[in-house]
Amino acid sequence: MVKSLETPEPQMLKPGIKAPVQETLLTPRFYTTDFAAMEKLDISANETELLAIVEELRADYNRHHFVRDDEFKQCWDGIQGETRRSFIDFLERSCTSEFSGFLLFKELSRRLKEKNPILAEAFQLMARDEARHAGFLNKSMADFNLSLDLSYLTKNRTYTFFPPEWIIYTVYLSEKIGYWRYILMYRHLQKNPQYQFYPLFRKFESWCQDENRHGDFFKALLRSQPKLWQNWKARLWVRFFLLTVFVTHTITVFERASFYQSIGIHPRKYNQQVIRETNNTAARAFPLILDTNHPEFFWRLEQCFENNQKLAEINKSDRSKFVKFWLKVPAIAAIIWHMLRIYLVKPINAELTRETVL
Ligand SMILES: [Fe+2]
Ligand SMILES: [Fe+2]
To answer: Of these four, 47, 103, 217, 252, which has the most CB atoms within 10 Å of its CB?
Structure first.
């Protein structure tokens, strides 16, 4: 059974402003890239599809969606204890990753304006959506007397450099996994309204269509670059990114088991469903996907979580750095071993099924 971990009390930066959680490999990242290389991307091989998606983004179907209606205007002090702490943690993590998307898309649209106007417009429209998402989540945090200082985050977070190819793979996957996370939560709460303790979840149906469109844009961009899917190197990278996204997802879902339980979601079932759906969706963009039906697939992902917990416990202990390092070696080796074993499972060729899945 999934272990339920207590969420720590939020730390404050100043009154009402929450200090961002400590950055780790698993907290949502802020990205930067090689803008000059991005500018030079030749999208002519798939321009029609890209233009059709830009047209969809222009239509701005959700322009009236992100409104805090009357349902929000009440006191939320009734939500207390672990439910409150883990919900705030969920809001913060979601807000940070939405905001990270906003910053990257905004910078891309600014830098590409002159030389690649189609991509620049798409990034500008997606930045618009992410700003709405992050803003809405931050207002929800304010209902719990906290908010994130987004300009502080902009200046103080570490930016990870990813070359354009990695940006396209990872942002594609994060948009699609984001879509599945939101829609599955929404469908579950529609069926089980007794768990809907806060109206934010009701917004997820249209919200996740934004993420779906962003994912479709990245899919079209990826398919416009044959080097990103038509050779052996691309096949190795795709396996790696699918695996790392699924390991990260498993660890973060299991770490926050108490949040999922508070809305009546079984963390293990939810994790598996999100991963299976995202993997199947990825067959539309990637040359291959992972074999989630392999008998050891989810067991090994969960072993990564178990070992990550051991690392967290060692880090928390008051031993010297030297001792901590040696205590951590077996857990780190175990995570690498389990990831390697999943990586080596024969993947499923998505190109063979392309005609039927498109
Ligand atoms: Fe978003
Ligand atoms: Fe998005």
So the answer is: 217
